[in-house]
Amino acid sequence: MRIGIDARYLSHGLMGGVHTYLRLLVPALIERAGAASIFLYADTKAPFEIDPATLPENVTLRLLPYRNPLSAVWLDMTLQRAMAQDNLDVAHFPANFGFAPRGVRSVITLHDAINILPLHEIIIGHPKNARTIGLMSYLHLLSSLSVRRADAIVTVSEASRREIIRVGRLPEDRVVAIKYGPAPHFR
């Protein structure tokens, strides 16, 4: 099996929930991959957080060019081209949206229903400046399209699962709740 993961949150120097999720998911997946090939897609905004020299032979890191803030938008639209070159079987997008190449199964981790709520409900809860409204609208559009196209949607709890199914009007069998496990230092 050939698995692709949008790992850009590990090359942006960011902190937060999606970053933590990905920082724990990638090593756990690598550890359990067996004969599967894993392709990590990141960009050059900041150094990749996992030392590429420590990655096993079955893991390939693809660093895509990042030149300015518009690069993130460009990569949102073109990441599927990079993925298509690796003949993936499945692509995982851990940050609420993403588009797999044609013929590749896709998994979206939608952490909650916020980005797929009706747009006016999203905007109500945020500052009313052009940048924030633009960003919320962009994330809403991409998340809504991604969720409709995804073969599977992973979320973090049964409560989130029920809300995503309700708000997104999705079939129950396409949305799966997989609870976060404890970080290794807590085990």
Report on the architecture of this protein.
Strand 6, helix 5 (158-168) and strand 7 (175-177) form a beta-alpha-beta unit. Strands 3-2-1-4-5-6-7 form a seven-stranded parallel β-sheet. It contains five helices and seven strands. It is α/β, with parallel strands linked by helices and 187 residues long. The chain has helices at residues 17-32, 69-84, 119-124, 130-149, 158-168; strands spanning 2-6, 37-43, 59-64, 90-93, 105-109, 152-155, 175-177. The protein has one domain (2-114, 146-186): Rossmann fold (3-Layer(aba) Sandwich), CATH 3.40.50.2000.
Helices and strands, with pairings:
Elements: E1 2-6, H1 17-32, E2 37-43, E3 59-64, H2 69-84, E4 90-93, E5 105-109, H3 119-124, H4 130-149, E6 152-155, H5 158-168, E7 175-177
Parallel strand pairs: 1-2, 1-4, 2-3, 4-5, 5-6, 6-7
| Proportion in β-strands | 15-25%
Instruction: Enter the CATH topology name.
Output: Rossmann fold
The value of Rg in angstroms is 16 Å
CATH architecture: 3-Layer(aba) Sandwich
Main sheet: strands, sense, barrel: 7 strands, parallel
Helical fraction equals: 25-40%
**Poorly predicted runs of 5 or more residues:** none
- The run of helices and strands is EHEEHEEHHEHE
Strand order of the largest sheet: 3-2-1-4-5-6-7
Mean pLDDT: 92
* Fourth CATH level, the homologous superfamily: Glycogen Phosphorylase B
Overall 3D geometry?
globular
